[in-house]
Amino acid sequence: MPMTDPRTVPDSPSEATDHAAAPGAGDDAATLARGREYAAGALATEADALAQMARDLPEGFDAALSAVLSAQGRVVVGGMGKSGHIARKMAATFASTGTPAHFVHPAEASHGDLGMIGEADIVMLLSNSGDTRELGDIISYTRRFSIPLIAVTKRRDSTLARAADIAVILPDAPEACGIGMVPTTSTTMALALGDALAVAVMRLRGYGREVFHTYHPGGKIGAQFLQVRAIMHQGAALPEVRADQEMSEVLLEMTGKGFGIAAVTEAGQLVGVITDGDLRRHLTGLMDSTARQVATPDPRTIGPEALISEAVLEMNRAKVNALCVVEPGGRLVGLVRLHDCLKTGVV
Predict the structure, then answer these.
(1) What pLDDT score was predicted for residue 26?
(2) Is residue 60 a contact partner of residue 130, using CB atoms and an 8 Å limit?
(3) Mean pLDDT of 323-335
(4) What is the pLDDT of residue 185?
(5) Overall pTM > 0.70
(6) Pairing state between β 101-103 and 166-169
(7) What pLDDT score was predicted for residue 12?
(8) What are phi and psi of 128, to 5 degrees?
(9) 301-302 β-sheet, strand order
(10) pLDDT higher than 80, residue 70
């Protein structure tokens, strides 16, 4: 007798209907409509659970927040399966927002990684049921060495919750899968709890953009924190001319630097700029003029400590492609172009 593939056996009459409709029905409008209904229902189920958490923060939240705030060491986060994936993200979020943290895999902990947990640390373990066997060695280790243990679980009568110093009890909300078995709502709540704790700690400690950039210098997020100083043209690369220089010399400077602009200074102070547009407007008698006579006075400028995103905003407002970079007293220190800003990926 041929064996039946268990993946094709429906678990319920409703699933039997779903399976029967699935073959060859991917483009069928009715199938897609039903799929959208299932998807919307899953999102609604998870949203309801998060709304419940927001209205009434989980039992044990205040104690967990206090423990993280007062921790002298790291926040060590662990979990198995889907809870383990959430725990990894939770540790990463803590670390990137100024709270030292790392993830420890419970199975690896039993084979030497318990040494990654110090006596000054606090441990946070995630388990929806609270009875995950693989957590046993970490639980025992924290009890043996009096390391604070925070449990994140749905069951206050579970092994994990009973053993913990602090138990954060998540709402007993239904999973969004329709069969009550796939970790969906439960993992979403745990993920949101981690974000809530990390954000609360970050804001209570007064950590802002600068701290976040310290821990996140790469990628597009990191680029948003780059300062003009990091990309401006300066020194020998800066197209700078004196206000009393003849235009023949100015043209050589502009051509040599290739930026289509020259900063005009007097005793190091910016007094104007000359662009290709200024040259066209002064064609008559251009070679008999000085830089001061051709320059546009009081040009738009930006400081070296300004963010690149602020420089882009200023250039867009002024409808220019470059800005002179000056210190608070007006001394010229560099030139930043729109092209330079775009190369960083900030826009």
Answers:
(1) 52
(2) no
(3) 94
(4) 97
(5) no
(6) unpaired
(7) 46
(8) -60, -45
(9) 301-302, 322-326, 332-337
(10) yes
Task: Tokens for 59, please give them.
Answer: 């039992």
pLDDT at 7 over 50: no
The predicted model gives 291-303 an average pLDDT of 94
What's the 3-state SS for the chain? CCCCCHHHCCCCHHHHHHHHHCCCCCCCHHHHHHHHHHHHHHHHHHHHHHHHHHHCCCECHHHHHHHHHHCCCCEEEEECHHHHHHHHHHHHHHHHCCCCEEECCHHHHCCCHHHHCCCCCEEEEECCCCCCHHHHHHHHHHHHCCCCEEEEECCCCCHHHHHCCEEEECCCCCCCCCCCCCCCHHHHHHHHHHHHHHHHHHHHCCCCHHHHHHHCCCHHHHHCCCEHHHCCECHHHCCEEECCCEHHHHHHHHHHHCCCEEEEEECCEEEEEEEHHHHHHCCCCHHHCEHHHHCEECCCEECCCCEHHHHHHHHHHHCCCEEEEECCCCEEEEEEEHHHHHHCCCC
Q: Six-digit token pair at 127?
A: 């388990």
Tell the residue number behind the tokens 């990091």, with chain if given. 230
* Nearest in space to 68 (alpha carbons), one of 134, 149, 175, 172: 149
